[in-house]
Structure formats: structure tokens, C-alpha cells
Amino acid sequence: MVNSVFGSCEATIFEVMSRLAEQKGAVNLGQGFPDGLEPKEVIEAAAEALRKGPHQYPSMLGLPALRQAVAANALRFHGLEADWEREILITSGGTEALCDAFLALLEPGDEVIVFEPVYDSYGPIIRRGGAIPVPVRLEPPDWRLPRERLLAAITPRTRAIVVNTPMNPAGKVFDAEELRFLADLLLRHDLVAIADEVYEHLVYDGRRHLSLFAVPEVRDRVVRIGSAGKTFSLTGWKVGYVMADARLLTPIVRAHQYVTFTTPPALQAAVAFGLALPDDYFADLKSLLEARRDFLTAALNRLGFATQTAAGSYFAISSFAPFDRDGDDLAFCRRLTAEAGVTAVPLSAFYGARDLRFHIRFCFAKTQAVLESAVARLEAWRAAQNVT
After folding, report:
1. 132 and 279 in contact (C-beta within 8 Å)?
2. Residue 75, domain CATH
3. What CATH number corresponds to the domain at position 372?
4. Tens of pLDDT along 152-164?
5. Is 193 found in the same domain as 45?
6. Are both 286 and 344 inside the same structural domain?
7. Residue 8 CB contacts under 8 Å (≥ 6 apart), including other chains
8. Most Cβ neighbours (<10 Å): which of 156, 191, 227, 233?
């Protein structure tokens, strides 16, 4: 016998498309991990911490130095104040932080609103905890918050709303008006928000990252989640954090206690070092990714893929309607991998009904050389297509 939730799960679309990319020798712009952006000084800090030790269990809550650094970084860049001793927890990645929050704050039968397109780990973890994910669809190309649809989705069993900003995979950044609307819903319906903000340092075109945690009236209702993997392009390190009022954080700490208990101390020490880097590091990373976003977006539009300019994150969303009348995005991604040697992921994979058509996601957090290679392959493929 196996658990019904995980027994029915398929391999993630990222794994499926990455395997196909490897088989076909394709340039993989599907999976959302960065290439060549790792800061050498942070890696050296990890190496030094490994040499020095200690190598035993650190504090379950996380190294004091890292919890202090998380608080200081949030204040420096976002104006958010938190008590590092009572309101910050270090986890083994953002996904563990999400898992801890769902397990700690939800009861069987609770409903949780998730915005589609939705990061794929939310649903299985929510369901495994006995709660029910309730999807509310955002639609391309503008990804506006569907207020009437959201209001209709709230029932007496609704317990939480998951707010992912900047949003994976859509690249949407929730604005102040949208966050104020969500804050009012939290108050009116006695809800909590799980704020997935792992791309907090990757917002573009002069925008500022905005967080529900900054709204005073709901600060004690918001669980804010971040990820060093995204901030330092070190996704394999799996170092995340949770910031929340002590009343909410206490049960999340208890869940963490029995999920991973703690996180490698050398990596924690290196992330603490990284979070204290000068402002230039964070500004330069943003500028570099913004330039690569612009390069890939312009190239895709030139080739006939109607592509939006992402407000944040690593991802560009394109319509492939001129190239395929059927609109089957998974079939088109397989075709593009085989024929063009470039891999994307189908956007329908981020919708429970799998019914969104004609849209695919490309990752632009790659080296310039990788992006240029992908564009050259797409140009050769486009020249062979019978498209007017």
C-alpha cells in the first residue's frame, strides 16, 4: 500500500523535460536553475566554514548569525522589521519552509487558496496534510488578480491564501493595490497568508519588492518565505528561511523539528556572509538578469513567439500560436526539443485542469553564451517553418 497523494503524483514537468533535453542534446531553458551566476566570495565563505567547523547539529532554529543576517537584509532592502530570536527560522530550502508552514497551520478539511499558474509543490503538500487546495486562475497576458473569482472561492472552511510574488512561473509581481486587497481579505475572513517570496531580490525595471508582511494590520497573519538559493544562484544548497510572528512561527518550528531538524552549518554561515554583501552585489545581479531577460524576450518576439516582459523571477512566458494550431503545449515543447534543440516547459503543467493552451515558459537565468546558442537554434528552426 502507498499513500494516495504521493502514489498518484507523476514526475515533475521539470524532470520530464530535462530528461528529454539531455536525450536530445538540447539547450535546456526549461528547468529554473541559474547558470554561471554563483558569487565566488559566498562559495569561498562556505569552503572556509567547512574547514573551520563545527560539523555537528547547529541550533534547530538556525545559526544566530544567519537569523540576524536575514533580519538585517529584510530591513535594509524591504523595510521589514523582525525579531531574529523569536520570528525567524532557517530551513533546508524554500520548499521545506512551505512544507513546514502547511503542516503547522492547516487542519484536515481546511481550504487553501492558491493562484494558478502555481508552483508545483504546493498542491501535494497541502493535500498530504489533509487540506484542500482551491485554485484561483490568473490568465495571460496581464496576470491580473481576479478579484471577483477570488471572493467567490472563499468559504467558511478557507484557512489560508498562498501569495507567490514575484510569481513562478508567470513573472508577475503583485502591486500595492493588489496586496492591500489581499490584506483586507485576511482581516475580513480571519485568514493567514503563506507569502512565497523566494525571488524577492529579482524584480526589474526599477520596481521594489512589496510584501504582505509590510502591511501593519496583517503582519501577524503573514508567513514570509525566502531562499538563499535564488538570492545567490545556489539552488543546490537548499537554504531557506521563514519570517513570521512568534504565534505563527512556533508551530512551524515544531514541524521543522520533525521534517529536517536543521540545515548544514557551513552553508548557513556562508549565506549569512552573503546577505551582508554590499548593495552592489544585489543591484548587479538584478541588472545582469534584467539584461538577459531583455535579450531573450526580444529574440523570441522577433522569431514570432509573443513573449511578455517578466516583472520578476527567472521566467519568460511565450505564446507559440503562430507555430501550432492545436495549442497542445506539452506536445509543442517535445517538438521544439526534438526539432530545434531547445527545451521549454508547458505552462499548462502549472494549472490543475491542464487546460491552458498555447503558452510555454523559458528560463533566462543562463549564461549569455547559452542564451545565444538557444536563439541561434531557434532561428534555424524558425527558418524551416512554413509560417507567414
Report:
1. no
2. 3.40.640.10
3. 3.90.1150.10
4. 999 999 999 999 9
5. yes
6. yes
7. none
8. 227
Report the C-alpha gap between 65 and 60 in whole angstroms. Answer: 13
Go through 11-34 and write b for each residue having 16 or more CB atoms within 10 A of its CB, e for each that does not: eebbebbbebbeebebbbbbbbbb
Q: Are 197 and 224 in contact (CB under 8 A)?
A: yes
Give the model confidence (pLDDT) of 210-264 as tens digits.
999 999 999 999 999 999 999 999 999 999 999 999 999 999 999 999 999 999 9
Give yes or no: residues 304 and 243 share one domain. Answer: no
* Same domain for 212 and 196: yes
- Give the closest residue to 152 by CA, choosing from 165, 137, 140: 137
Residues 254 and 295 in one domain: no
**Same-domain pairing of 51 and 197:** yes
Model pTM above 0.90:
yes
Same domain, 234 and 249: yes
* 3-class secondary structure, 355: coil
Residue 241, φ and ψ in degrees, nearest 5: -150, 160
Q: Among 180, 230, 231, 176, which residue's Cα sits nearest to residue 208?
A: 176
Cα–Cα distance measured from residue 222 to residue 26, given in angstroms and rounded to the nearest whole number? 41
Q: Are 251 and 226 in contact (CB under 8 A)?
A: no
User: Last residue of some domain: 207, 242, 277?
Assistant: 277
CA 350 to chain centre: 12
Q: Is residue 388 part of a domain?
A: no
What whole-number distance in Å separates Cα of residue 188 and Cα of residue 287? 39
Q: Work out how many domains the chain is built from and give that number.
A: 2
Domain annotation covers residue 193: yes
- Residue ending a domain, among 228, 249, 277, is 277
Rounded to whole angstroms, the Cα distance separating 188 from 180 reads 12
Say which residue the cell 467567490 belongs to.
Answer: 152
Angle at 163 between CA 301 and CA 279, to 5 degrees: 70
Look up the domain containing 352 and give its range: 4-31+280-383
Nearest to 317 by CA among 325, 326, 328, 306: 306
Same domain, 294 and 350: yes
- Reduce the secondary structure of 67-115 to three states and give it as a string: HHHHHHHHHHHHCCCCCCCCCEEEECCHHHHHHHHHHHHCCCCCEEEEE
